[in-house]
Design a protein that fits this description.
With about 220 residues, this protein is α+β, with helices and mostly antiparallel strands. It folds into two domains: about 120 residues, 2-Layer Sandwich (Methyltransferase, Cobalt-precorrin-4 Transmethylase, Domain 2); about 80 residues, Winged helix-like DNA-binding domain superfamily/Winged helix DNA-binding domain (Arc Repressor Mutant, subunit A), CATH 1.10.10. It has seven helices and twelve strands. A hairpin with a 5-residue loop joins β7 and β8. α4 crosses α7 and α6 crosses α7. The relative contact order is 0.13. The model has no long low-confidence stretch (mean pLDDT about 95). Keywords: ATP-binding, Nucleotide-binding. This is ATP-binding protein. GO terms for molecular function: ATP binding. It comes from Heminiphilus faecis.
C-alpha cells in the first residue's frame, strides 16, 4: 500500500462524483475511524459490491486525502474491523492539479454476512440501500448464514409456507411481525419459515425507507 502511485484522473473522478452517492458509491471526506469505514465495506459486500471515493465531501467537493495514513486506515477497516476480513482494491488519482482521491473497490461477498466491528466490540452486518448503510434485519442475517451453510434448498412447502406465499401473491409484501401475528404462530416459527424461504431464493428482503419487508423474489 505504501508504494501506491497516483495517476492522473481529473476527468474520471469528476465523472464518478457527478453520479452522486448511490447504492454502489459512497463519498468519504476524512478517514479517521476504521469502524465507520468497515460499516461501508460490510454494506457493499452484503449487497452487490461498490466503491468508496476517499477525499470527497458529501456535497461532492474534492478535498483530497491527508496522507498515506488514510490508505492504512482503509486497509485496517477491511482486514481488522470486518469479519470475515475483506480484500479491497485501492487506486489513487491526482485531481485538479494535486489533490489525491482514493477509489476503494469492494467486491460482493462470496458468502454473507460480512460483519463490521462496532465501537463497543459487538459485530453487526450492514446492507447498502440507495445512499445509506442500513443495519441488516436479524432474520435477513439468519437467512444469509443458512445460505452460506448450503442449507437453503426447499423441496416441498409446508402448509404455513404455502399460506405465506399465497398471502404475498395477493398483498405483495409484509413484515416479520405482521406475518407472525396474522398466521398466529410464534416468532421462532415465523422466522424459521422466512429464513428457509429466503435461503432458497423464494423470498427476499427489501427496505422501504423505514423498515425491512419481505416479498417474493424477483427470481421467482
Amino acid at each position: 500500500m505504501k508504494d501506491l502511485k497516483a495517476i492522473k484522473g481529473t476527468f474520471y473522478i469528476h465523472n464518478l462524483i457527478s453520479e452522486g452517492e448511490h447504492e454502489h458509491q459512497d463519498f468519504k471526506f476524512a478517514i479517521t475511524d476504521a469502524a465507520k469505514i468497515a460499516r461501508s465495506i460490510s454494506a457493499f459486500a452484503n449487497n452487490d459490491g461498490g466503491r468508496l471515493l476517499v477525499g470527497v465531501k458529501d456535497n461532492g467537493r474534492i478535498a483530497g486525502i491527508r496522507n498515506e495514513e488514510d490508505i492504512f486506515v482503509v486497509e485496517q477497516a477491511a482486514q481488522m474491523y470486518c469479519r470475515p476480513p475483506q480484500d479491497v482494491k485501492v487506486s489513487a488519482f491526482t485531481v485538479d492539479g494535486g489533490a489525491v482521491v482514493l477509489r476503494v473497490d469492494i467486491a460482493k461477498a462470496s458468502k454473507r454476512p460480512v460483519y463490521s466491528r462496532e465501537p463497543d466490540g459487538t459485530m453487526r452486518a450492514y446492507y447498502r440501500v440507495k445512499d445509506e448503510n442500513i443495519a441488516a434485519h436479524p432474520v435477513m442475517v439468519k437467512a444469509w448464514r443458512r445460505m452460506a451453510a448450503d442449507e437453503g434448498l426447499v423441496l416441498s412447502l409446508s402448509e404455513a409456507e404455502a399460506a405465506l406465499l399465497n398471502y404475498l401473491d395477493e398483498w405483495s409484501m409484509t413484515t416479520v411481525e405482521d406475518y407472525m401475528r396474522g398466521a398466529h404462530i410464534s416468532r421462532a416459527a415465523a422466522e424459521e419459515i422466512i429464513v428457509r424461504l429466503c435461503a432458497a431464493g423464494v423470498l427476499e428482503f427489501i427496505y422501504t425507507g423505514s423498515e425491512f419487508r419481505i416479498m417474493r423474489s424477483d427470481n421467482q
